[in-house]
Design a protein that fits this description.
The chain is α/β, with parallel strands linked by helices and about 425 residues long. The chain has helices at about 35-50, 125, 130-145, 145-170, 175-215, 230-240, 275-295, 325-345, 365-375; strands at about 1-10, 15-20, 25-30, 65-75, 80-90, 95, 105, 115, 225-230, 310-315, 315, 355-360, 380-385, 400-405, 405-410. It has 2 domains: about 1-115 and about 355-410, Rossmann fold; about 120-350, RecF/RecN/SMC, N-terminal domain (Glutathione S-transferase Yfyf (Class Pi), Chain A, domain 2), CATH 1.20.1050.90. The strands form 3 sheets. A 6-stranded antiparallel sheet has the order 2-1-4-5-6-7, covered by helices on one side. A 6-stranded mixed sheet has the order 8-12-13-3-14-15, sandwiched between helices. A 3-stranded antiparallel sheet has the order 9-10-11. It starts with a strand and ends in a 5-residue tail after the last strand.
């Protein structure tokens, strides 16, 4: 799959811009602050309905505009698809597929698939757990768009449950509310179990690719792993249902925390081996065990919204221990692992994703530039932005497009 045409109206700095693209490597060159990233952000937003730069839609609209439009023509084999996404101020976004009647924006998910590398990716290692949860969920939705509803359902239930817990903390909680909380526990247990089950499966799929990608980008002296830390496991352990070592290292396969105390009679339960129904039961137990603390604090303490994806280099956590170069290599490896997982899907009927490298090469040393370029150069479509063309490794040969204020310099393209 590749993007043949991109048109933006009132998106970020662009009143109107049209960009024609082709398979292979395209490098967009222009001064910093001129709008290169806005073009890449629009493609990424079309794929995920999220921006890699901001958490809300308002900054995506050109100042003073009430809506922005992203239009794209995608080509897969002999088939082409036209997507339109309308981003609105103060009301729901809408989409169109092949100029059909308007649909929900999330109905576009899964049609345009991208893997976007950007300087903001440093937050995947250095940032708080929400950055890593978001990474997992965006990839999950790209692979299986139905999980957009899973995540939406969980967020809705979490909001309602937290509101009830806050009223309890404020002294407005009666015995009647107890039954209501039981109902929300059931809803949240089911939604949480579906999300947790999907995340655990995804981490298991990512793990071998993460290891291989990190080895490709470095000298191979350290191994990269990812460990999913679930609050469900912690809650059950604290309640005495299972046991856990005081200091646990990465689990085999990088799923939920596994292992056991040297003197424990029973091993810690491996959440990866449980069905959605079994995980639902475990959440109901965990909510019951945590209820007193949750009522005291007025917030939900157990659930996927508080889980962590721990990134490990060798035997130490990457966060706080990795050097700057190692941090960059880990971030790039996560994105490459995403790419490889999508390629796995492409071999069974999916589409290879569009690779977007937004101002990444300026952040890397020469060795990492060349290794990354060699890895991605064979992709069906690679879009790269750079302020200085000399930052682009020679391995990335292809078309050059000059970006100027407000648009594209067609005379400068080659």
């Amino acid at each position: 799959m590749y993007l043949e045409k991109l048109s933006l109206t009132d998106f970020r700095s662009y009143a109107q811009v049209d960009l024609s693209l082709e398979p292979g490597v395209t490098v967009l060159v222009g001064s910093n602050g001129i709008g290169k990233t806005n073009l890449m952000e629009a493609i990424g937003y079309l794929a995920t309905l999220n921006s890699h730069r901001v958490s809300t839609d308002a900054p995506l609209l050109r100042f003073g505009a009430e809506r922005a439009m992203i239009r794209a023509k995608l080509v897969r084999g002999e088939q082409s698809t036209v997507l339109e996404l309308e981003i609105n101020a103060g009301r729901a976004n809408r989409g169109r597929i092949n100029r059909s009647n308007p649909v929900r924006a999330r109905d576009l998910l899964g049609i345009c698939q991208t893997v976007l590398f950007a300087p903001e990716d440093l937050a995947l290692v250095k940032g708080d757990p929400s950055s890593r949860r978001r990474f997992l969920d965006e990839l999950l939705v790209s692979l299986m768009p139905r999980h957009a509803a899973t995540r939406s359902d969980y967020d809705r239930v979490l909001k309602q449950r937290n509101a009830l817990l806050k009223s309890a903390r404020a002294g407005k909680f009666s015995t009647g509310h107890e039954a209501t909380l039981d109902v929300w526990d059931q809803h949240m247990a089911r939604a949480g179990a579906e999300l947790l089950h999907a995340r655990l499966e995804l981490v298991d799929r990512l793990q071998p690719h993460l290891k291989n990608a990190y080895a490709q980008l470095t000298d191979g002296s350290k191994e990269a792993t990812a460990v999913y830390r679930s609050t469900l496991q912690d809650s059950l352990d604290d309640d005495g249902a299972t046991s856990r070592p005081a200091e646990s290292g990465p689990a085999d396969g990088a799923g939920a925390v596994t292992g056991s105390d040297a003197g424990a009679a029973a091993p810690v339960e491996d959440l990866r081996l449980l069905s959605v129904e079994q995980l639902t039961d475990r959440y109901i137990q965990a909510f019951a065990a945590a209820r007193r603390k949750e009522l005291e604090r007025g917030i939900s303490l157990v659930g996927p919204h508080r889980d962590e994806l721990e990134l490990v280099l060798g035997s130490a956590p990457a966060k706080g221990y990795a050097s700057h170069g190692e941090t960059w290599s880990m971030c790039l490896s996560l994105r490459l692992a995403s790419y490889y997982v999508m390629l796995d899907d492409a071999r069974t009927g999916g589409s290879p994703p569009i690779l977007i490298l937004d101002d990444v090469f300026a952040e890397l040393d020469v060795q990492r530039r060349r290794k990354l370029a060699a890895i991605v150069s064979g992709a069906e479509q690679v879009l790269v932005t750079a302020a200085v063309e000399d930052d682009i490794p020679s391995e990335l040969t292809g078309r050059r497009v000059k970006v100027i204020p407000g648009g594209i310099d067609e005379q400068g393209n080659r």
